[in-house]
Amino acid sequence: MNQEQLIKECKQGSTAAQKCLYDLYAGQMFMTCRRYLKNEADAEERMLDGFYKFFTRIRDFHYQGEAALFSWIKKIMINECLMFLRKKNPFVITAETDELTIPVPEEVLGKLEAEEIFKLIIRLPLGYRTVFNLNVVEGMTHKEIAALLKISEGSSKSQLFKAKALLQKMIYSENEYYESRKIN
Asked: What is the CATH number of domain 3-88?
């Protein structure tokens, strides 16, 4: 069954169609939530809340293709995560005094697996991680991020710069650790 038909059936109240759509997107949406939230249980709960909102508002959705459906669900998930972060603790702009940028050689980046990169991103402080995800992963502008997080564009730019610098440091440190283990 194609996605357009699943949407039609969901609008008619079919729980089987809802389950099919959930099964189709749950893995990707969990990883989206996980990029924003360190705790797996919080990420899963936000994902479930997001699907609940998706299914309760599905009558407002007009199918325009798989990409539009994916984007709509993903936007709901991101908003759920951001609302959770705002409720749990106000968005914190992280200050980092040492902003030294360490260049990371291309061969080091090539050795990193997606899972390793994910683990580095999730270790970023909340402010860095949130702005990094919104800008680099989701493709939002600093103006959009500033409006969404209720911060200045300058703060958004600063958090992104600091997130990238810290990621460079972490990548460099991880590479040194692995290289030292190969020698021993």
From this structure: 1.10.1740.10
